[in-house]
Every structure is written in C-alpha cells, then in structure tokens.
Write a structure and sequence with these properties.
By secondary structure, the protein is an alpha/beta fold. The protein contains 10 helices and 14 strands.
C-alpha cells in the first residue's frame, strides 16, 4: 500500500525484568542490552524500514522517570542525580543506535523524539521570559545533546550548582559527538505558559507537564490548551535551534466520544483540531521554510490513554467499544474523522483549504 513505516525502538516500554534486575536506565549495563536490540531490529528490517526513533519523548525522564527510564527510587537517594545519570545512558544509547543503524544500512535515518510545546512568558516581565526559557531548556537539553553532539553549558552549570556528578567516559563523549541524529521528531498537543512569580499558581493540565492557564486559548475536556499557532511557533523554534529536518510524530485531541446506535461518532471537534494544526504546519513549511519530513497523528485507533489511564479519553479515528471499567464488546467502528482524514491523506493535505 506504499505505507512508509516509522519505528520507535523504545516507547515507554523498558522490560520489567531489566527494571527488577538492573534498576532500569540508571544502570550502564542497559547500553549493551539496547545495542543488541538495535542490531537485531536494523538487521531484520533492513530495506523495509528507513526511519527510526531511538526513545519516545526522551525528556519525560525528568517528569515521569518510571515511564521514561524504568526508574524506581530508593529511599533517601538524590533523585535528580539518578534521573540525569539515566538520561546520560539513554543519550549514549541513542548515539550507539545511530552508529549501528548507519553501519548496517547507510539508507537508515535515525531521529530523536521529545514531548514538545513552546513555553510562553506569562507577562512581559523579564523574570517570566527567563522562566519560560528555563522551562524550554529542560526539554531541549536532551535534543541539544542528540542533535549537536555535546552537553550544553547551562546543563553543566546546573549540575555544578546542584552537586550532580554524572559518570561518563571519553568513549561516551566521542559517541555523542560523532553520531548525532539525522532528524528531530516530536509530539505536540499544546503550548505552555511559565511565570517567574511564585504567587502565580493557576495551573491547567498538559502532556504530563502542568502549565499556567493561558486566557487566550480554549482547552480540551482534560484541560490541555488548544493552540495551532503554537505548533508553527514550536516548528520554527526547533528549526532555528538545530537546522535539522523535523517530523511531527504525535498530534491529536483526546475527547469524550459519544457513538450512535451504529457506533458512528460525529467528531467534528477532532476534525477542527487536526485541520487547524495541519494548516499551521503548512504555514511553517511554505511561509517560514522549515524542513518537515512528515506528520503522523495520535492516533489511528482508540486505546488507553498513557496520561490518565482512561479508555474514555479517546484520540482515534476508529471507535473501540470499551469503557474505563473494561466493559464493552471491543467492536470497532469508523468515526467521521476517519473518512475526513482519508481524504487528507489521499490529497496530501490539498483537501484542507
């Protein structure tokens, strides 16, 4: 069918055996296990898969360490030290994967992946702008290493201030330097707002990241702020920072869907969300000149939400008869958005005016 696969090697699925036996990505031995997995995948799918992502939303390590790196903390340990050591191991593993991929098949393209969404300052006050910059850096830290090949000075200074000492070898640094990613991919659901004022606490939900509410934006039923222009802003920010091709690999709207007696869902709200974001993506390409390899939505079929553990928070083009209590026939039916997106794909976006 001419479908070009895009494969994520690790998507929040560190094997439980490796967590129980080795402590997940806090342990350097994970590098060898991961390299073995990569060699197996790249060999098995040589000529079949060209685009690879090393770690899904790698910046989640700092916010959801078990999800992102299989980390369970021990009582009294320095959690920031553990998270950044695990981050180092994943960053080195990503460089190893890039090296192995190119050796096995020079046609392979390897990308990194972050949970993106630019931070806006809450006001024009300089301390709010600084707060927004600091929040952005927490995510871009990972991509700075994967795309530029070395640790940024702001991170080194942070570790120095906080007494964090990362164990790393000269070989690690050589791998990071010499095997940067071919492209930068990311998920985008919402923009965020930061404030340097400790009295500002009016927060709303987001993709794990809580954010100050933006009064200029509408929100989803789960409080995620809907901001299509924010996607264009994020695309430009990433392009300006790295000048590497990009790939939007997650974008969608989680919503309560109500089917009729035939299982059909008239999800015009989802269509409106995706249409607005695709227009913003198109503007970034044709008006701003960013280089974009592709766009894939989250997701094609309803599944359990990773953010809230709910089935009722639905993203798919296909409705699945299942509720939060696990009740339902599992029957699948196509939503209105299914037929709409089919036309979008067939026309390569030309159906969106």
């Amino acid at each position: 069918y001419g479908i070009e696969p895009l494969v994520t090697i690790t998507h929040f699925d560190c094997p439980m055996h490796l967590i129980r036996e080795y402590g997940g990505w806090r342990n350097r031995r994970m590098l060898d296990f991961y390299a073995n997995l990569c060699r197996t995948l790249f060999t098995r799918y040589k000529g079949l898969v060209k685009y690879w992502l090393t770690f899904n939303e790698i910046n989640m390590i700092l916010h959801a360490p078990f999800l992102g790196a299989g980390i369970c903390f021990e009582e009294g340990e320095n959690q920031e030290q553990v998270k950044y050591q695990a981050a180092h191991h994943e960053l080195v593993a990503s460089a190893m994967a890039t090296k192995i991929a190119h050796e096995i098949d020079p046609e392979n393209k390897v990308g990194c992946m972050l949970a993106a969404g630019q931070y806006y300052p809450n006001t024009a006050h300089p301390r709010d702008y600084w707060a927004a910059m600091e929040e952005d850096r927490k995510s871009y830290f990972f991509i700075d290493v994967q795309a530029r090949g070395e640790y940024p000075n702001y991170a080194k200074k942070q570790w120095e201030r906080e007494g964090i000492e990362i164990e790393m070898t000269t070989e690690d640094l050589d791998l990071l330097k010499n095997h940067t990613v071919d492209f930068v991919s990311f998920s985008y659901y919402a923009s965020r707002v930061a404030s340097g004022d400790p009295e500002v606490r009016d927060l709303t939900a987001g993709n794990v990241f809580a954010s100050i509410k933006n009064p200029y934006l509408k929100s989803s039923e789960w409080g995620w702020q809907i901001d299509p222009l924010g996607l264009r802003i994020t695309l430009n920010a990433i392009w300006d920072r790295y000048q590497k091709p990009m790939f939007i690999v997650e974008n969608g709207l989680g919503a309560m869907d109500t089917p009729d007696e035939n299982g059909y869902v008239a999800d015009d709200y989802r269509i409106a969300y995706l249409e607005a974001h695709i227009k913003a993506m198109r503007d970034a390409i044709y008006q701003d000149g960013v280089e974009l390899l592709g766009y894939t939505t989250w997701g094609c079929i309803d599944l359990v939400s990773a953010g809230t553990g709910e089935m009722n928070k639905r993203y798919g083009f296909i409705y699945v008869d299942r509720d939060n209590a696990g009740q339902g026939s599992l029957k699948r039916s196509k939503k209105k958005s299914f037929y709409w997106y089919k036309d979008v794909i067939a026309s390569n976006g030309a159906s969106i005016k």
